[in-house]
Q: What sequence folds into this?
C-alpha cells in the first residue's frame, strides 16, 4: 500500500485513543524510523536513541487522550520525542 492510499495518521490516532492497539501499532511502524533519526541526531548515541524512541512511543500512547486530531499527529509525536531527548540530555 502506498502512502497516498493509507489512512491519515490523525484518524489512526483517534482510533488508538479509543483503544485500538492495531491503529497505534501502525503509527509506530510509520514513525519509528523518523523518530529514531531525530533522536540519534540529538543524542548522538544509537543505543540511547533506541531507548528514547521506545520511551517516546510509550509516552505518546499514554498521552493520546490529549492529542488534538485537528492538528498533525507527526508534529505532536516529534515534540514528544524532542522533549524526551532534552530530558535525557539534561539527566546526563
A:
Amino acid at each position: 500500500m502506498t502512502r497516498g492510499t493509507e489512512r491519515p495518521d490523525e484518524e489512526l490516532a483517534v482510533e488508538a485513543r479509543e483503544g485500538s492497539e492495531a491503529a497505534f501499532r501502525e503509527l509506530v511502524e510509520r514513525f519509528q524510523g523518523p523518530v529514531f533519526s531525530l533522536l540519534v541526531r540529538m543524542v548522538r548515541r544509537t543505543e540511547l536513541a533506541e531507548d528514547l524512541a521506545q520511551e517516546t512511543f510509550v509516552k505518546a500512547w499514554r498521552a493520546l487522550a490529549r492529542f488534538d486530531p485537528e492538528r498533525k499527529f507527526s508534529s505532536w509525536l516529534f515534540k514528544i520525542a524532542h522533549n524526551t531527548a532534552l530530558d535525557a540530555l539534561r539527566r546526563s
Remarks:
- The mean pLDDT is 95.
